[in-house]
Amino acid sequence: MSLKKSKYLAVAFCLGALSVVSVASWAQAVPAEKADEARVDRLLKQMTLEEKMNLIRGGLEDPSVYQAQAGYLPGVPRLHVPSLRMADGPPGLLTRVAGQAETATMGVAATFSAKDAEANGAVIGREARSLGIDVVLQPFINIDRDITFARAYNTFGEDPMLSGAMGAAEVRGAQAQGVMAMAKHYVGYDSNGYNIFIDQQTLHEVYAAPFVDAIGAGVSSVMCSYNRINGPFACGNSDTLKTILKEEMGFKGFVTSDWGGVHSVLFLNEGLDMEMPGAAEADSPFKAFINNYFVTAPPDTTPVKPLDPEALAGILGGPIPEEPQGNGLDLGGFPRDNDKTTMREALKNGTVTEATITAAARRVLYEIDRFGYLDGKQKHTVTAQDVEANAAVIRKTAEDAAVLLKNEHALPLGNDDLQSLAMIGPGAGQVAAIGTFGERSPGLTERQIGPLEALKKGAPTANITYAVDDDMTGVPVPAAALSHDGKPGLLRIDSRGSKVEDAQLDFTHSNGKSLPASGTVTWKGTLTVPSAGEYWMYLQVLGARGRLMIDGKRVGQTGAAKGTVHGDVQYATQDNGFPTVDGLDNVRRAVQLTAGPHSITVMASSDTSNKPEQIRLNWTTPELRESNHKAAIDAAKKAHTAVVFVWTRGKPDFALPGEQDKLVDEIAAVNPNTIVVMNVSQPVAMPWLGKVKGVLQMWWTGDEGGWATADVLLGKVSPAGRLPFTWAKQLTDYAANDPAHPERSAKGVDGKTTYSEGVDVGYRWFDKEKIEPLFPFGFGLSYTTFEYSDLKVAKASDNGLDVSIRVKNTGAVAGDEVPQVYLDAPEQQPQGVQFAPKTLAAFDRVTLAPGESKDVTMHVWPRALEYWSVAEKKWVRSDARRVRVGSSSRDLKLTAEK
Question: Which PROSITE patterns does the annotation name (predicted)?
Answer without folding.
Answer: PA14
